[in-house]
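Standup notes, protein team

Yesterday: finished cleaning the human gut metagenome set.
Today: Mce related protein structure.
Blockers: none.

Input for Mce related protein:
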Amino acid sequence: TYFITFDDIQGLGASTPIYADGYKVGTVDGLEYDYKENGPIKVKVDIIKDLRIPQGSKAEIVKDLMGNLQVNLLLANNPRERVEPGGIIPGAVNGGMMDKAANLVPVVEKMLPKLDSILTSVNALLADPALAASLHNVETITSNLTVSTRELNTLMAGLNKQVPGMIGKANGVLDNTNRLTANLASLDVQGTLNKVNQTLESAHQFTEKLNSNQGSLGLLMNDTKLYDNLDVNHGSMPTPWLST
């Protein structure tokens, strides 16, 4: 048995649970109040025997949002000294979530005018005809996008059907090109070029002989005296078909 002193017990009563590090270690057994001295309220608690309470530990009353009370033992880090059974543990009240909520009330009160102004602005925005027109435009754009997507899907489906045929035609063209290349590769291009060169060389030699004084044709074409004699003889030859 131990005693915990509180200035205010917040409605604490018998059988209120006592916890240490989240584990239930006892219950409230009774209350003692000195009406003459008007001092702190002494709460008698039953704690399990195996729990060692270090000297310097404290206790606090905690109330949750539902109004339920419990006592939490805040064990001190003191491995050498402990509170002996029958000893007194100082206690206090921890408002918990309720106190935190109460502290938020002034902040919320300051925010209310701003929230009201924001709501007014939002209502004005929602009532603006331009917003309705913008939403209508968005709906129209979405509808157009849906139609465009449908048409694109149709186009892609058509292309998917045509692509195999196009690939087949391309393969045919490539096959023809390969055959043409093979045929060109099989031709004796070098032999043909050699024959052409020989023909050109022969023509060149023939031309040189015509331009020189060698050979009958060369002499005939380059000897002007011989040409003149032939021309005179040709003129003196009788022409029976012209005789009268």
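Follow-up from PR in the comments: The first strand starts at residue 2 and ends at 6.
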